[in-house]
Fold this protein.
Amino acid sequence: MNYDSIRKKSFKNAFEVLQSQNCGCFYCLKIYPTSEINENCIIAENDGKETVWCSKCGIDAVIPESTEYKLDVSLLKKLHVDSFEIDDDFYD
């Protein structure tokens, strides 16, 4: 599994996230329905594309549900460890 390509889905991702039923944040490790995303959770980037921020913690680490990977806490933990340089034993 290519974690870098999954992580990239957290930037300029509003269209893809809002098309999915669920999304997950690899910062706070929450999975929730995209219906919980409101206009305060979406910011415009310089090129006009939009990025979704987590409705739970406010961090731009949200990825959409996808057929390319299973959106679960295990995946979010892996992305969290890789992205925020946390030791794997942090969750033990």
